[in-house]
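Appendix C: a fully annotated inverse folding record. The material below is reproduced so that readers can follow the format used throughout the book. The structure is listed first as tokens, followed by the designed sequence.
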């Protein structure tokens, strides 16, 4: 499990919350994280982590599953299936 970011000095210059969230989700593909866990691990705000997760879901990079009242997010790269062209 990745170590949480304790202060801003630990972050690399120019590293965005999106990069940090995606790195965490890619490292442990068998584990799903709640948004609360991702906020603690990345050191980002609730809105920035939520925005990153929503963006990843729209692009098909991240999927979520609901357990009780909590959503858990996990890395699931979009399968790139070729679409068959219609011939006239």
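Designed amino acids, in order:
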């Amino acid at each position: 499990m990745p170590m949480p970011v304790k202060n801003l000095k630990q972050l690399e210059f120019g590293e965005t919350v999106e990069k940090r969230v995606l790195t965490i989700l890619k490292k442990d593909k068998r584990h799903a994280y709640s948004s609360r866990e991702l906020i603690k691990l990345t050191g980002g705000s609730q809105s920035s982590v939520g925005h990153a997760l929503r963006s990843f879901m729209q692009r098909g990079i991240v999927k979520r599953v609901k357990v009780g009242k909590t959503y858990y997010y996990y890395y699931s790269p979009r399968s790139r299936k070729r679409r068959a062209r219609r011939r006239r």
